[in-house]
Structure formats: C-alpha cells, structure tokens
C-alpha cells in the first residue's frame, strides 16, 4: 500500500492541469519580443501602428458614449475622472449637477447619432454628437487632447445644450 501511495505522489498530473502555466504567457508583450512588459507605452515603440484603441476617431466615439452615460445619470461621473483634465472634470461635474441631459422617464434611453469629429492638431480631437432623449434632442461637444509623457488622451472641455 505504501508503494502505491508513493508512486501516486510522484506521478505527473494528467488532464487539463498538466501543461497549464501558473499565469498566462504573452505572445509578444509590446516592444520586447521576449514577451516581457514594455518600459515604454506601445505608442512610443518603434514601428507602432495606429491600432483601433489608439485611433482618435474610435476613441471619440467611445468617449462620447461614456460621456452621455454620465450626463444622463446612468454612470457615476467619477468613472471619467482619470480620463479628464481638472478643468474638463469641473465642466463635467457642473453639467451633471445642472442636469444638462435629464431623462423624461425611466423608459427614455439616450440614442446617440453619429459622432462628428475634427482634428485641429495631431494631438487633439474635437467632437460633437446629437443625443435623442425621448422627444428632446441635445448636442454634446467635447475636446480630447493627448497629455503627459505617456500620451494619454484626456477630455479638456465639455459642453452640452
């Protein structure tokens, strides 16, 4: 019986746990082909292409959706704090307090029209979107700028009417 137990304890595990590493391994983790974490953001890596998450147009569309959720009260404004500058967050907070995009009732879900954006400079995007809330129509405009050493996009200005 002890021989059976010792053979069992030294045997390699079989099944779905046999070849699985402790944590996931990255195929190509950024700039380093060895798969280590990059010391620089991907945007500064040599030969970095514009990917969908770094595309200013796609970024403006995603931010517009999140901004409208905050302005209608579906999302807390604190969730956008890291994506806004101090002035931009102050403007956003005052719009939320004033109820710039109030819902008519619980059934009114905001419908966003197409996001119109322009890039006055390579590190800035100005965008506006029409928001339909029931029978009321609103316009929301905002400006995104790349800031800081990592080049993170931040909202620097917000208007809603």
Report the end-to-end length measured between terminal Cα atoms: 81 Å
Approximate shape: globular
- The Rg value, from CA coordinates, equals 24 Å
Total of helices: 3
**SSE string:** HHHEEEE
Strand order in space, largest sheet: 1-2-3-4
Helix content percent band: 10-25%
Count of extended strands: 4
Describe the sheet with the most strands: 4 strands, antiparallel
The fraction of residues in strands falls at 25-35%
**Kindly state the mean pLDDT as a whole number?**
78
Q: Based on helices, strands and strand pairing, what is the structural class?
A: alpha+beta
User: Low-confidence runs (pLDDT<50, min 5 residues)?
Assistant: 47-52
Report on the structure:
24% of the residues lie in helices and 26% in strands. A hairpin with a 2-residue loop joins β2 and β3. Mean pLDDT is 78; it is low at 47-52. The chain is built from 3 helices and 4 strands. The chain has a 4-stranded antiparallel β-sheet with strand order 1-2-3-4. It has 161 residues and is an alpha+beta fold. The relative contact order is 0.14.
């Amino acid at each position: 019986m002890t021989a059976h137990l010792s053979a069992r304890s030294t045997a390699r595990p079989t099944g779905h746990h046999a070849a699985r590493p402790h944590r996931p391994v990255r195929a190509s983790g950024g700039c380093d082909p060895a798969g280590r974490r990059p010391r620089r953001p991907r945007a500064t890596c040599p030969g970095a292409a514009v990917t969908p998450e770094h595309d200013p147009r796609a970024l403006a569309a995603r931010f517009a959706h999140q901004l409208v959720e905050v302005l209608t009260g579906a999302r807390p404004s604190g969730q956008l704090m890291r994506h806004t500058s101090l002035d931009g967050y102050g403007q956003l907070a005052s719009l939320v307090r004033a109820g710039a995009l109030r819902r008519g009732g619980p059934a009114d879900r905001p419908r966003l029209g197409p996001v119109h954006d322009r890039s006055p400079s390579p590190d800035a995007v100005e965008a506006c979107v029409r928001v339909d809330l029931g029978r009321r129509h609103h316009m929301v405009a905002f400006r995104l700028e790349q800031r800081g050493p990592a080049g993170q996009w931040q909202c620097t200005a917000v208007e809603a009417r």
